[in-house]
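Troubleshooting: if your tokenizer reports a length mismatch, compare your output against this known-good record of 261 residues.
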Amino acid sequence: MRATKIVTLTALLATLTFASKAQERDDRATILNFKGIQFHSNDSLFYTNFRFRMQNRIGFTEKLDGETNGEWDARVRRLRMRVDGYIYTPKISYSIQLAFTRSDQDFDETGIPNIVRDAVVFYNFTDDFYISFGQNKLPGNRQRVNSSGQLQFADRSLVNSKFTVDRDFGMSANLSKKIGEVPINAKVAISTGEGRAASGTDGGLSYTGRVEFLPLGNFKNGGDYSEGDLEREETPKLSIGGGYSYNDRNYPRRRSNRQIC
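Known-good structure output:
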């Protein structure tokens, strides 16, 4: 059995955003309680905000395989610009997110510089029910849905890198409601199954769904989507969730929509 030991000496994580009070979410536009670079019309028919996130990392990896030793890694892990806003009414909102580094463009996996991470339009029927159309995160595993700006550590887990569905182009519906005193979040998506490097479709579709139960009530300020302990909860909180994704006819891709064979 081959043993592998990975040692990271230093992880420098520099994150700069202009958000105030509102937790950043990748599955909907951030337009409330926001302060920073903003533009809006006097008649309130147009609003947009800009922010960027920079994450620099340096690390050292040692693998106990007798072959690969002493690898250094120093790079800009993430450099992103995000634009959120609405047109005509807050019910019609949008979110655009661009990536400017090689690792953040999935270039090594797809061979294509995927600059566009998110390009999605939302229609918000209410604060608790909205639909979307465009390229955005699928409602898969929790850690992938969490924004990289809300992670506890410098990067997501190794398990997430293998078992995740990430982003795709399609439509989704998101509903939050209470059954008794228990908040429930339900999310479904129908997408192309081609991922971010899509150049066409194979005739099949991808079907993804996720349900979350919060038996002890809602987290303060959406804190269940923030891995860092940024809010003080007066009572214990718990989130229990499960997701499922089926990608029909995803050839020539593997790992769902993540890699091209």
